[in-house]
Design brief:
Elements: E1 16-18, H1 47-73, H2 80-112, E2 126-133, H3 138-153, E3 160-167, H4 172-188, E4 194-199, H5 206-218, E5 224-227, E6 233-234, H6 236-248, E7 252-257, E8 260-261, H7 267-278, H8 280-291, E9 302-305, H9 306-312, E10 318-319, E11 325-326, H10 331-341, E12 345-349, E13 355-357, H11 363-379, H12 391-420, H13 428-435, H14 451-475, H15 477-481, H16 486-519, H17 538-544, H18 546-560, H19 569-576, H20 578-585, H21 595-598, H22 602-605, H23 609-630
Helix pairs in contact: 1-2, 2-8, 2-12, 2-14, 3-4, 3-6, 3-23, 7-16, 10-12, 11-12, 11-16, 12-16, 14-16, 16-19, 18-19
C-alpha cells in the first residue's frame, strides 16, 4: 500500500493536521460558585423507589451491625478508642451494604424489564468519533479504528459518522508513525466515512484540553461526539445504538455504555476480565436503575451531545492545598455532574452490547494507573460545594473519593485488630501499657471483639455480589455454557475469588499510599498504559512492594509471639507474599494452563469478532510501519 507523506498544515504551522473546514463552538469556563439557569429535563417514573430500595437497606444494615457491636463493647464500658473503632467499622461497612443493595435492585430491575430493544425511527445525527491519544502504539490505535469503521460500514445507518484521531503525542517518532498510519487509514476508509487527524504542538491540559481544542475548532459541525480511548473497541451496532438513543431522547446530554474487558492474557488481567463479565453486569444493572437520569461518565465509550457539553462542561483549574494551579484530573465525573446541573439527562445503558476496553496486565501497571485516578477522585471532595449540583451527582463525586479513602480506613481497622490481639490477655495496648509506664495512657479496659466473627461477616458481605452473580450463571444452563460449562465456570469462580482475596490486602496498602501521595500533590502523573503486559524484574518488584513486605513481616512477628489473632493470617500471608504475588500477576496464561486457572469467560473462549478483526488490522499496520521504517531516508 502506497503511503503519502505530505503533511497538510491547518491554521497553526506548529500543528500537523488534515482536518475539515473549521466550525468553532464556544465553550465557556463554568463558574462553580453560581448555579446556571437549568433547563427542565424529563424524569423517569419510579426513580425514587429504586433509590430508596438501595439506600434504606444499606443504612439499616449498617446501623444494625453498629448497634450489635455497640452492645458488645458496652459490656466493659466504651472508651474513646472503642468509639473511634465503632465509627470506622460503620464507615467501611456502609459501602459494602450499598454494593449488596445495588445488586438486589439490579436483579429486581432485570426481572421487571428483561428486554431492552432500543428506540425506533429516529432522526439522523452527525456523529464525530473522537480518539484522543498520547504516545500510544500507532498500529494498535489505527488497527482498532479500522476495525470499528469497517464494522460500522456494514450497517445501513441513517446517521453520518466522521472519525477524528486527536493526537497529543510528544514523541516525534511516534507522531511520524501516526501520520503514516493515518494516511493509510484515510486511503482505505469505507465510503461515506471521512477520516481526519490532528496533532497538537503542546498537550495543554492533557485529555481535557485535547477535547476542548476539537470542540472549539470543529464541534459546531457535529450533533454528537462519541469519545473513545486508545484501547476502546465498539461494534457498529453498539455505536449505532448509542446514536439512536441520543437522537430519541432530546433531553439526554450524555449516554454511557458499559464496556466489557477484552484481550486479557495474564493472571491479573484475567481476574479483572472474569469479574467484569461474571458479576459486573449485576452491579451495572443496579447502578442504572437507581441513578436514572443522574448517571455518571467514565471518560470513554460514551456518546455526548456536543452543543450541550460545550455550553455546560467547560472546566476551570483548581488551586491545590499549596495554592498551586491544578488541572481537574478525573474530569469525567465532573463533566457528567455539570451536564446534569444544567438540566441535561445523563444516562447509563448497561445492556448495550459490543462496547469493549482493555485492562492493565500486571498488578504494578494497575496500581500506577490507580494512583492517577486516586488523586483525581480526591479532588472531587473540593467540588462537593459546587452550586446547583443534583444530590445524586454530589453522591457520585463523594463515592469516587470514598472508594479510595476506604483503603486507609480498612488499614486503620487492621491496625486496631492487631493491637486488640487474640484475647484480653494478649491485648497489645494493655500489654505495653503495663510494661511501659511512659507509653501514652491508652485505656487498659478496652474490650475485645472476636476477630473471627467480624472477619467472617465482612468477607461474606464483600462476596455476596460475586456469589449472587455466580449463582445466577451456574443455575442457568445457557449462561454457564458460554463460560465453558457449569463446572468450568465454578472452578474459575473459586480461583478468581481466591486470587482476589490474596491481592486485596496489597491493593489496600497501595491505595493507602496513593491517598497520602495525593494529599502531598503527587501521584497524578500521566503516562500511556502499557498494553503489552510484561514481567517486571525482581529489583523493581521489591522496590515497589517494600512497604507491604515490611508490614507483613511485622505482623508475622506478632503472630509468632501469640499477640495477633490467627484469623488475620490470610492478610498477613498476602502482605508477606506481595513480591511473589506481583510476579504471578504478569504470568501469561496459555492453553497448557489448567482450565480453572485460566478463568475463562465468553470474551476469552470466543473472542468478539470485532477484536479478531482489530488484531488482524493491528498486525497489518505494524507490518506497514516496519516496512516504512526500513526505507532509506530521502
Amino acid at each position: 500500500m502506497a503511503v503519502p507523506v505530505d503533511r497538510h498544515l491547518n491554521i497553526d504551522p506548529h500543528i500537523v493536521a488534515d482536518m475539515p473546514p473549521r466550525a468553532p463552538l464556544d465553550m465557556p469556563m463554568q463558574d462553580f460558585s453560581k448555579a446556571p439557569d437549568a433547563r427542565k429535563a424529563r424524569t423517569e417514573d419510579g426513580g425514587s423507589v429504586w433509590r430508596l430500595s438501595v439506600f434504606v437497606p444499606a443504612i439499616l444494615g449498617t446501623f444494625a451491625l453498629m448497634w450489635g457491636l455497640h452492645g458488645v463493647l458496652m459490656q466493659a464500658g466504651m472508651s474513646v478508642l472503642e468509639w473511634i473503632l465503632l465509627g470506622m467499622i460503620g464507615t467501611t461497612f456502609v459501602w459494602v451494604t450499598l454494593a449488596i443493595s445495588t445488586v438486589g435492585v439490579g436483579l429486581a430491575g432485570r426481572m421487571r424489564n428483561p428486554r431492552d430493544d432500543g428506540p425506533c425511527d429516529v432522526a439522523p445525527l452527525d456523529v464525530a468519533l473522537l480518539i484522543p491519544i498520547y504516545n500510544e502504539v500507532p498500529s494498535d490505535v489505527f488497527g482498532n479504528a479500522t476495525a470499528m469503521l469497517q464494522d460500522l460500514a456494514h450497517r445501513s445507518s441513517d446517521h453520518r459518522y466522521t472519525l477524528f484521531v486527536l493526537s497529543d503525542s510528544t514523541d516525534d517518532n511516534t507522531a511520524d508513525q501516526e501520520w503514516l498510519a493515518f494516511a493509510a487509514l484515510r486511503a482505505s476508509a469505507p465510503a461515506g466515512i471521512n477520516v481526519h487527524y490532528r496533532r497538537r504542538a503542546q498537550n495543554t491540559d492533557k485529555k481535557v484540553g485535547n477535547l476542548v481544542d476539537w470542540i472549539t475548532g470543529w464541534g459546531a459541525a457535529h450533533n454528537a461526539m462519541l469519545v473513545l480511548d486508545a484501547d476502546s473497541l465498539m461494534t457498529g451496532r453498539a455505536i449505532e445504538r448509542l446514536a439512536d438513543e441520543l437522537a430519541a431522547d432530546g433531553d439526554a446530554g450524555l449516554i454511557q455504555s458499559f464496556p466489557q474487558l477484552i484481550g486479557a492474557e495474564t493472571v491479573f488481567a484475567r481476574i479483572q476480565q472474569f469479574s467484569n463479565v461474571a458479576y459486573g453486569w449485576l452491579l451495572a444493572e443496579g447502578l442504572a436503575r437507581w441513578s436514572q437520569a443522574e448517571g455518571n461518565y467514565w471518560g470513554h465509550n460514551a456518546i455526548i451531545r456536543t452543543e450541550a457539553f460545550a455550553q455546560t462542561a467547560g472546566l476551570p483549574h483548581l488551586n491545590d492545598v499549596l495554592g498551586r494551579d491544578e488541572l481537574i484530573l478525573s474530569h469525567d465525573f465532573v463533566e457528567a455532574s455539570l451536564l446534569r446541573r444544567a438540566g441535561w439527562r445523563v444516562r447509563f445503558l448497561p445492556r448495550v452490547t459490543g462496547s469493549f476496553e482493555e485492562t492493565p496486565g500486571t498488578l504494578i501497571d494497575y496500581v500506577i494507573r490507580d494512583r492517577r485516578w486516586c488523586r483525581g477522585n480526591l479532588q472531587h471532595l473540593r467540588l462537593l460545594g459546587t452550586r446547583g449540583l443534583h444530590p445524586v451527582s454530589r453522591f457520585h463525586l463523594f463515592q469516587g473519593a470514598a472508594a479510595y479513602l476506604m483503603s486507609p480506613a480498612w488499614f486503620v481497622l487492621l491496625v486496631f485488630w492487631a493491637l486488640l490481639g487474640r484475647d484480653a490477655d494478649t491485648n497489645v495496648i494493655l500489654y505495653f501499657h503495663e510494661s511501659n509506664p511512659l507509653f501514652p495512657n491508652w485505656p487498659p479496659d478496652m474490650s475485645h471483639i472476636d476477630s473471627a466473627i467480624f472477619l467472617v461477616i465482612m468477607y461474606a458481605m464483600l462476596l455476596i455480589p460475586k456469589i449472587a452473580g455466580a449463582g445466577i450463571i451456574a443455575a442457568n444452563g445457557k449462561a454457564a455454557k458460554v463460560f465453558g460449562g457449569r463446572w468450568a465456570f465454578l472452578g474459575a469462580f473459586v480461583v478468581e475469588v481466591a486470587l482476589s482475596i490474596l491481592y486485596a490486602p496489597i491493593l489496600m496498602i497501595q491505595q493507602t499510599r496513593a491517598v497520602f501521595l495525593a494529599m502531598r500533590g503527587q501521584g497524578g502523573g500521566w503516562a500511556p498504559q502499557r498494553r503489552d503486559a510484561q514481567a517486571y524484574p525482581l529489583r523493581t518488584l521489591f522496590a515497589f512492594h517494600w512497604m507491604e513486605t515490611v508490614l507483613g513481616a511485622l505482623l508475622v512477628v506478632g503472630l509468632s509471639a501469640g499477640l495477633i489473632s490467627l484469623w488475620l493470617l490470610p492478610i498477613v500471608f498476602s502482605l508477606v507474599m506481595a513480591v511473589p504475588l506481583s510476579a504471578l500477576s504478569s504470568v501469561h496464561l496459555g492453553q497448557r494452563t489448567p482450565a480453572p486457572l485460566r478463568m475463562e469467560s465468553p470474551n476469552s473462549l470466543r473472542e468478539p469478532a470485532i477484536l479478531i478483526r482489530a488484531k488482524r488490522e493491528r498486525d497489518a499496520f505494524q507490518t506497514l510501519l516496519d516496512r516504512q521504517a526500513e526505507l532509506p531516508a530521502e
